[in-house]
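Researcher: Next entry in the queue.
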Amino acid sequence: MTETNRTKIQGLIRRATMRDADAIHDLIGFYAERHKMLFRTHEDIYERVREFRVFVDPAEKVVGCCALAILWRDLGEVRSLAVHPDCIGSGIGRQLVFDAINEARDLGLRQVFALTYEKAFFEKLGFLLVPKESLPHKVWTDCIRCELQDNCQEIPLIYNL
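Model: Structure for this entry, 161 residues:
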């Protein structure tokens, strides 16, 4: 992802609904095809739709998505963060991540982490680089489905609440 749009895009963040599943799938698919994130099937999105929040523009078009997965009593993961390529640099990703962090705080989690290729983006938000080994083994269960699992370059970062 590169920053191409510094114009703040008007819109709002709301909980995802089943009607948003196709748009979420398309956003994630765009980056998954470029090996920037893990692909999510429609079935996976349907099963996890309650984890997602979406950013919708004034025309109700979904231009960003992000999920918060709860992995343990005090640990969550910010995952499937995707912003429409025309909207990169507009602050949508930042807003989505902080919305997920606020939910994690409300749930009483102590930390959230992200596995990403966009280290600088997450560091700007206050995430800290951690060794992969410091995360529980359960974190890596999604990796089984990834074609890059043997050559994974994702970077683990953590945010302390």
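Model: The chain has a mean pLDDT of 89.
Researcher: Noted, moving on.
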